[in-house]
Structure prediction request, 145 residues.
Amino acid sequence: MSRNTILPDVGQRCVVIDDLRLRCFIGVHEFERKARQEVYITIHMFVTEPFAPKPGARLSDDIADFVSYSDIVDQLKARAASTRHVNLVETLAEEVAAMALADKRVASVVVDLRKTEIIPEAKGVGVIIHRHSGPLRVKGRTDDG
Prediction:
């Protein structure tokens, strides 16, 4: 799937899971309730750096100090293995965003979720969402709910 590169802001890093292919129960049609469908999930997790690395300083090489893509992949695989059905790609994308934002170090997340088998003429159809931790931010408005 072709996408534009998403760059983190200065002082951030972006942890990426690109085109994770899973089979889920998803869709509004009756035939979609009976068989799993392939979905591609791309996640960009933006993490604010806790400190600015000093030139020549040794950085931590301990996984506990970083957001782990492996933890999110394991959660997504477990979700796909479940028999729980959702109707909409939007619903599943929100679940994915919530998984990423559960790690308090993740400031925001972009989730691109596509069903690849439902429209034969298309590589995929789906949704892209961008979510922030904390209160909702909409064009200068803050909303806690």
Summary: The first helix runs from residue 30 to 34. The chain has one domain: 13-49+63-143.
